[in-house]
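Async update (no meeting this week)

Hi team, since we skipped the sync, here's where things stand on the single-chain job. The sequence we agreed to prioritize is pasted below, unchanged from the tracker. I ran it this morning and attached the output directly underneath so nobody has to dig for it. Comments welcome in thread, and please keep replies under the output.
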Amino acid sequence: MAAEFSSSVIKPIGSQSRQTWIPQDAYSVESRRPSRRQETSGSIGVHRSTLAVLAAVPSSPLALAGHLGTIASWDDNPTSLGSSLVYLPDTLPENPAIILGLHPCGGTGQMYYQMTPLSSYADSLGLVLPFLTSKSQGGMNCWDAHSAKSLKHDGGGDSQGLAGLVKWAINEYKADPEKVFVVGGSSGAMESNVLAATYPDLFKGAASYSGVPAACWSGSPMSTPMSSDLSCPLGQKASTFTPQQWADLARACYADYGGTFPKMMIVHGTADTAVTVNNLNAQLDQWSAIKGLSFSKNVTNDPVANWKRIVYGDGTELVGFEVQGGGHIPQFQGDATLKFFGLM
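Output:
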């Protein structure tokens, strides 16, 4: 089936707040989408009650010139992921970059579009920005980061469908295949690691905000906060697996692959109780072992106050950010992320 596409002029977000009820322990809280001038050191806090977390999105008007459209379908989509939002600048340059945005558990593509400042960069940098919504797992929209199908290249899982959409977008928008990236928060960050392992020949870089290593969820019945096995997000695996074990898990996702792997940016808050901070080190262990990189140095208050940049090698292929006191899903840092990707 050929892909279908429709578009409409994007409208500034109004003054009304949108609220979403998310079950307790969900890896998802919505926040104000910052403009490029509003990036801070804050994190998206997790507020717990006995039954639910209320996440509100205070909205602010943004001067956007592009279009928000819909990709209704594409050929390679074995798990039947739903239609994708896509933000396009009014004037699309030749060979644009693509950044796939993946939402947290309990969220939607629309939510993650509002949650990050990426669209404010798209017009000046000429970016194509798809934002999908995952299928439901146990009543929550969460990406499949656990099944054997999704943890294998062309295995028939969510990872294949996401890669299929990106391949369609490369062809449709004549994008530069050397400028294809993925970013995500929480469940989306976990799936970003999965995509880096299952499709390293497609994605050139990934940014993980509060994620876990690729294949960390392997063996669990589902990759949601409602899973009966939370040894991955709560750090038991991170505390016991060696860098080589993590590297072996990632390489097994595409066993026949012998090429280079994407550059990786890993962000985590020290006060994260939903996905514990030792998963920051576990991700850095995984990708440093795969890339053969060693720790070089720490840089304090970079890119903003209370953030520590953890540099491996020369910092162009692997970097971590530890957010002191930061909760779940630290504030998206647009400049730092896009500079790491080489787009600024």
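Quick observations from my side:
The first strand starts at residue 4 and ends at 9.
The first helix runs from residue 109 to 115.
Reply here if anything looks off.
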